Amino acid sequence: MENKPYSVLLYYCYATIEDPEAYREEHHLFCVENNIRGRIIISPEGLNGTVSGLHEDCQKYMQYVLGDPRFAKTEFKIDSHDQHAFAKIHVRAKPEIVHSSLRHLDPNEKTGKHLEPEEFKALKDQEDVVILDVRSNYEHELGRFKNAITLDIDNFRDFPEKVKELEHLKGKKVLTYCTGGIKCEKASAFLLEQGFQDVYQLHGGIIKYGMEAGGEDFEGKCYVFDNRIAVDVNKVNPKVISTCHVCGTECDRMVNCANPICNEHLPICEKCGWELDGACSVACKEHPEKRPYDGTGYYQKQSNGYNPYKGIFRREDKEKIKSIIHEQENSRIGTDH
């Protein structure tokens, strides 16, 4: 942490938020005033975010979140970085903090048993245990636990349908895992709802496992949702499991196709990346909307009309109105007396 001036925070908290839009404005204003960047989702069921900032700014941000009684139990996964991991700050109000099609489930009421990284490590290789990756294809193709079961899904909302393929595992201990733990909260709850008896989840996900248990037996890299794209996890027995989408050589360098219409998340080696100018195929390279390639394969998402100052001016206007009303009331009091 000392050698790199920035922190990257990954966190979530399932908690009731009565007025998500009002809290979105407050939360967003704090981020702007403290130079916090990233993506944060506010919903009636809680908050979920990945943000970056200078160490001292991230400390303020964590104090701000934890200082709210609703989010006092929030756990932050903290990594260090040499710069901001995001170009902008987006704080959005949405129906769910992760799109799951499982809104009826409340992890605060029922979810799988949480396993700390060392507990997960001790349990994962036992005979009656199966390890279940609940992430999407492009994530587990880049990296996953040794012997993990993966599901053919492009988005987490497809998870409930795929659980039908796991009926034969109902007599096993099922250990679920994901990047930071948030998907497992509902995935494990849904498994319990479907009749699985012995369900666990890796508390803090792959990121915490790498930090606290050395990442042993996690093969490949972990896909993350910021401009780092992929991070190392395993310090004990690392192994590359992905191959370049273009030439087939061993490769764990993850990129987004430079053609925004395609935008596939794929491992592409540096050589092929330059030869195809960031695209995943000749057709994508020649697409008229192809984005300029700078060698990273990361492209800032379009704002889609999102105003980074939404709510701030409205908030200032409200304060001005309150001030005017207060002055008028004082004036009236003076006249009355």
From TrEMBL:
<dbReference type="InterPro" id="IPR020936">
    <property type="entry name" value="TrhO"/>
</dbReference>
<protein>
    <recommendedName>
        <fullName>tRNA uridine(34) hydroxylase</fullName>
        <ecNumber>1.14.-.-</ecNumber>
    </recommendedName>
</protein>
<dbReference type="GO" id="GO:0016705">
    <property type="term" value="F:oxidoreductase activity, acting on paired donors, with incorporation or reduction of molecular oxygen"/>
</dbReference>
<keyword id="KW-0819">tRNA processing</keyword>
<dbReference type="InterPro" id="IPR022111">
    <property type="entry name" value="Rhodanese_C"/>
</dbReference>
<feature type="domain" description="Rhodanese">
    <location>
        <begin position="125"/>
        <end position="218"/>
    </location>
</feature>
<dbReference type="InterPro" id="IPR036873">
    <property type="entry name" value="Rhodanese-like_dom_sf"/>
</dbReference>
<comment type="function">
    <text>Catalyzes oxygen-dependent 5-hydroxyuridine (ho5U) modification at position 34 in tRNAs.</text>
</comment>
<keyword id="KW-0560">Oxidoreductase</keyword>
<dbReference type="Pfam" id="PF12368">
    <property type="entry name" value="Rhodanese_C"/>
</dbReference>
<dbReference type="InterPro" id="IPR040503">
    <property type="entry name" value="TRHO_N"/>
</dbReference>
<comment type="similarity">
    <text>Belongs to the TrhO family.</text>
</comment>
<dbReference type="InterPro" id="IPR001763">
    <property type="entry name" value="Rhodanese-like_dom"/>
</dbReference>
<dbReference type="GO" id="GO:0006400">
    <property type="term" value="P:tRNA modification"/>
</dbReference>
<dbReference type="Pfam" id="PF17773">
    <property type="entry name" value="UPF0176_N"/>
</dbReference>
<dbReference type="Pfam" id="PF00581">
    <property type="entry name" value="Rhodanese"/>
</dbReference>
